[in-house]
Structure formats: C-alpha cells, structure tokens
Amino acid sequence: MGEVNSITEKKTRDAAVREIAARTGVRAEEGRRFAELTSLRVGGRIDWLFLPETEEEAAVVAGELGAKGVAWRVLGAGSNVLADDADHHYVLLSMREVKGAASFDAEHVSVSAGYSLPRLCVDVARRGLSGIEGLGGIPGTVGGALWMSAGAYGHEIGQVVETVRVARGGQVIVVPGTEIKWDYRHTSFREGELLLGATLVLRHDDPEKIKERMEEAKQKRFATQPHGARSAGCFFKNPPGSNLSTGKMIDEMGMKGEKRGGAVVSPVHANFIVTEGENARAEDALALAEEIRERFRREHGIELEYEVELWGSGVKEKGEG
Ligand code: EPU
Q1: How far apart are CA 315 and CA 81, in angstroms?
Q2: pLDDT tens-place string over residues 83-117
Q3: HEC secondary structure over 26-60
Q4: 248 pocket-lining for ligand 1 (C-beta < 6 Å)
Q5: What is the distance in A from the centroid of ligand 1 to the CA of 192?
Q6: Which atom in ligand 1 lies closest to the alpha carbon of residue 268?
Q7: Catalytic pick from 41, 185, 230, 260?
Q8: Could you identify the atom of ligand 1 that is nearest to the CA of residue 234?
Q9: Residue 95 and residue 75 in contact, taking contact as beta carbons nearer than 8 Å
Q10: Which of 104, 224, 225, 273 has the most C-beta neighbours closer than 10 Å?
C-alpha cells in the first residue's frame, strides 16, 4: 500500500492501523503534529503515531506495518529533524517511550533506543565507565545518536558500540558494531530498519575524572551553543575532509541574528537555526537555511550539506534530504 493517495487507500490503511493497535495493545494516536514532537517545534500533522513502550512492542508493530505495506518511519526525541508544515501521510513510530532501565554487566551496558543519551552518560559516569562523556549534553535518544552517528568533543557513539538490535523485515537482528559504517553524522542504517537498542562496551576509569571531562564538555557546549532555545543542533555539516567550521564561516559572513519569519540564525552559534514565537513555521527555517546555502555557495564555492534531517510529507530514503 505504501503512501496513501486516495480515500479508499486511506480507509484501508486506517483500518490496518487500528487493527494492529487493538491486537498488540500498543497506543496509536491520530492527528498529532510534528510541532509537538520535535525540538524545533514546527511541522505539520501526522496521520498516525504509534507509541510502543518496549523493544518487543516496537519490533512487532514495525513488522506488522511492513507486512501490511503501510508506510512508516521512526522518530526518537525529534531533536535532529525539520519536518515540513504539510500533512504527513504516513505512520510515525515514536521510540521515546522505549526507555526501560539500562542494564550493566562489567564494562558493558545494554540500553533501549528511547533512552535519553544525556541520562545514559550520567549513569555510566557514576559507575566509573568512560567513552561517551563528550556526548553528555546532546539532547537526544540513544537510538537517534546511533542512527546519525552522534559525536562531540572527541567522542563518537560508533566507537563504543558492541552490537545494535535492529528490527528489519519482521525480524530482530543483532548487528555487530563493526559491521556498521560509522561516518561523520551518517551511518549505513537505512529507512525501514528500526533501531531497538544497543550494547555499548566502555572502559573503567576513575568516576571523578570522567565527571570532570563530562563537566568540561558541558561547559564548552554551554559557552558556545544556544541552550533552552528551540533548535535541532547544528543545521549543516562541516565541509567534509577539511578543518573548516561551517558555524565560524556563517558567523564571518555576518549572518548571526538573520531572520525569516519565526526562524533566526542563533546569535550564539551561527550553525544553529532557532525558532521563536507561536507562529514559527518549518518553511521559515527552510527559507533561512536555503539563504545561508546560497550565500555560502556564492562566497565560498561550497555546497553545504544538511546535518538535520529534512522530512517531507512522504516517506523518503535516508540521504534523499
Ligand atoms: N565559531 C565562531 N562562530 C560561531 C560558531 C563557531 O567563530 O558562530 C568558531 C568557534 O569559536 C571555534 C570554531 O568556530 O573556534 C569551531 O566551533 P565549535 O567548536 O562550536 O565546532 P563546530 O565545528 O562548529 C562541531 C559539531 C557540533 C559539536 C562541536 C563540538 C558539526 C556540524 N558540529 O561544531 O555538533 O557539538 O563540534 O564537538 O559537526 C551537532 O552535531 O548538532 C553539533 C552541534
């Protein structure tokens, strides 16, 4: 069935969704908005939102949707997504409630995809486990961090992944971290694969030292990036294969504070677009982003790549933008 293009298809799809929700006992809600579900607080209506609470539930729902040909995609904390203002005619599988307690075994920790990344960083630091303290203040889920290969202050999530539990084509597969491609803010995971959770392998170290390093990273982030603002982190990637900072270059182009409707280039870090006010729209953020890209192209001859995921109203392949 894929995306719904007619009233009949919509009716069939809606009946399939209701049937799956009733049979699995997983909550499904109609008509939620991306504006409530993403950190940029913009974006349109979603046909259906599934809210599983365990890895098993999430895997079953994904498998059933796949089997019935229903188009679906996955959202974590929504802190790296700009979803457009139009209606989104697909089913969203939210992983934010799949966040049962992390379980420890020596230097291994197993955690579900919806678990908060900052919370995990604190948990492991308390146990004297090192390897992710640089990721401390990144506002996202573990699943989101795995999906887009999060990194900061010398730490990359891919460096500590032992295995990832992935639901794929109705089956749960345990994928070794070494079989996954961990690129700069990009991985080999694909749309249609649901990351359920992971086991990380960390190193023992003095909890005080870990805390100190985590604090240091947090202070740096606090001093150089906006906090409390409605953002999706860095909007563009740094130009690959260079030591250039996109933020520094946008700053030098004099664009801090530049506005389009309810979207603003952050006065704190120029690679952050923040939204303001009740009437901010995704199209404001997009217009501002495209203006930055256009000037960047003109002044530096460089094509900026989006770091946030742009979600149109249909289901796209990863990397399609
Ligand atoms: N700078 C400016 N003006 C600005 C922004 C930065 O002059 O508006 C200067 C800084 O003073 C510094 C240099 O540019 O000298 C680099 O800035 P920063 O340390 O903030 O690093 P970045 O390259 O802009 C990257 C990641 C961040 C990550 C930090 C720290 C990307 C696109 N950004 O930023 O990741 O937190 O390093 O590791 O790779 C994200 O992924 O969403 C993100 C924010």
Answers
A1: 14
A2: 999 999 999 999 999 999 999 999 999 999 999 99
A3: CEEEECCEHHHHCCCCCCCEEEEEEECCCHHHHHH
A4: yes
A5: 31
A6: 8
A7: 185
A8: 42
A9: yes
A10: 273
